[in-house]
Amino acid sequence: MQRGAKSFLLLALFVLIVWLIVCQSPRLHALESDYDPVTGDPKCMNCHASDKRPSIDYSRDDFCFECHGPGLSDKFRAIDSKYDKNLYDVVDISAEVRKASPSNDMAYIPAGEFAMGSNEWWPKSQPEHKKVTGAFYMDKYEVTNKRYKKFVEVDNRTPPAHWVNGVPPPERAYHPVVFVSWYDANDFCRWEGKRLPTEAEWEKAARGTDKRTFPWGDKFEAKRGNMPQLGKNDTMPVGSFENGKSPYGVYDMAGNVWEWTSDWFKPYPENNHPDENYGEKYKVVRGGSWYDCTYYKCGISAPTYNRIFFNPMTMNNNFGFRCARDTK
Q: What residues does each domain of the chain span?
């Protein structure tokens, strides 16, 4: 009996050690139960509901790896530290908002090569590589509620969830339309005789050919876009930041709303970082928004090369889009 009891205790101790290693150590990837079984969206609020971070806090806790996976490099930490709250002043820019009513004007983006991605950012945005696009046109402005309203009326579409009785609030006529899925955005662009931009087209239109970090240059400035650091906590009329345009004259490519692209979330060439989300499951979204994951210490989202992914059925109040068109 004594020998049996000792064997039992040794077995119990072994089981306890295994349990501690497997169940209590930080996970390298999220579990299947961490995602909605219908939409595939991550259940972010499981971790973040009681832990909302200030939008200017760019540090990150080790337990974030449980959902966001490995690969956060020292380079990323060093780059992220540049966006400290002491580097800019948050001011009320209401007087700077453009008075002209934005249209569906388009900017011409010439054919040619540019640098896409970054070696100093999230693994999913690596590596920096050369990319060639043909010439194309890109909407200068994000699609507004007023512009989208015609589509809803003519094509008998379901209005976005934030509209009242199927009509957008008058004061938001020139705000970007939100609560639109990838399918809504894709259908709208086709209805206008256009299409959603590819991820490469979006990045080229945002950063040009000089590898700039932001549409306006390499220095982060909160007064050049409707980003969380500005403190508006809501969408703003499109085209509000004349000093935040891209090299090609495209507005709001940093902040205001995330923008759908046509591409599936897949790794760049020579990217060897494993990610269970790669494939034809999620669509790439670009540009950051007025509300983004900086609230949860995941890093600033405004850089032109930052890429995230969402289920194409996702609809919320910080997702919008713009359209592109071929030159022929």
A: 62-326
Tokens standing for residue 165: 């009785």
- What is the spatial distance between Cα 259 and Cα 285, in angstroms, rounded to a whole number? 5
Decide if 274 contacts 54 (C-beta within 8 A).
no
Taking CA atoms, 96 is separated from 91, 121, 144, 203, 242, in Å, by 11, 32, 19, 26, 8
Closest CA to 237 of 153, 151, 177, 303: 177
- Residues 17-23 have a mean pLDDT of 53
The H-or-E segment that residue 6 falls in is helix 2-24
CA trace torsion 230, 241, 287, 158 (10° rounding): 100
Mapping DSSP to helix (H, G, I), strand (E, B) and coil, where does residue 214 land? strand
pLDDT digits (tens, 9 = 90+) for 134-154: 999 999 999 999 999 999 999
pTM of the model: 0.77
CATH class of 62-326: alpha beta
User: How many residues appear in the chain?
Assistant: 328
Q: What confidence tier does 121 reach under pLDDT thresholds 50, 70, 90? A: confident
pLDDT digits (tens, 9 = 90+) for 29-46: 445 566 666 555 556 666
Stretch 151-159: mean pLDDT, rounded? Answer: 94
- The full DSSP string for 236-301 is --TT--GGG--TTS---SSSSSEEEEEEE--PPTT-----TT-STTSEEEES--SS-GGGGTS---
